[in-house]
Amino acid sequence: MKNLNELLQELGISKVKLAKYLGVSRQMIYNYLELENLNKWPKEKKILLFKLLDIEDGSEESLNKIKVTAEYLEDIESRLNQNIKSNIGGDNYFDLKDLNKEEQTLVNDLITIIKEKFTEEKNKDTYYEFLYLYHILQSIDNIPEIKYIFAYLSKTTGFTEPMEFKFDETAQFILESIIFTAMNLYDNGGAQKSKLIKAHERFVIEIENNKEEVLSRTQQLTTVKIQALRELGYSEINTENAQEVFNKMGEIQSRKVVMYDHKDKTSQQ
Hints:
Blueprint (H helix, E strand, L loop, with lengths): L1 H10 L3 H8 L3 H8 L9 H11 L6 H5 L5 H20 L11 H19 L6 H14 L5 H12 L12 H19 L5 H40 L9 H27 L1
């Protein structure tokens, strides 16, 4: 593998570009290059590398036969670019034309690492890891603390400087300090399950209460929608009557507020 690493450096093939060519993450490239030899690589990736370097196998003899000329470098660059375009334009393609270059790179890296986790590194937890991440991303606009937690994890894993604050600095600072304190308890054995049972029970009750409130609001809206449709003489909401139905729903809800307010005043008298 030492010969391969030296050859890649001589050819000017960065880890990022090789990762995109092979359709894997940059971290996976580092993992591949730490293996004993090319025979340990996944067959598909190994064949792609042989095609890129125009060799029949990954033996030291084949690698040593390579003569780095201007023509060879041009061929390498051509094969690299062609396969990178194919990867972006294939099954994983998304229309990213409205994104800037930095955003496009990030989206492609996210797609690559997710695909990689589900294929080459799949385990019993993979599905639920990304299912929960999907749920969190759906809620991120309504719960700003999610962004702060992501930033905290980015810092603790060494990707971001500890004093970098891209969101609300005060809120981030406070939440990071609280999480750090809690994680210290967790890591150092200061938190025991037996002592946290009551806290977890409150956690469960709060979640169930929130779900009940959401369900209740949903049922109320459904009732109001049915009443609005009935009063307007419609059987369903469609693109033509939607605005009229929504206006009627607002009117019905206003009526209810006035009615309840009147009842309260009457009872007080």
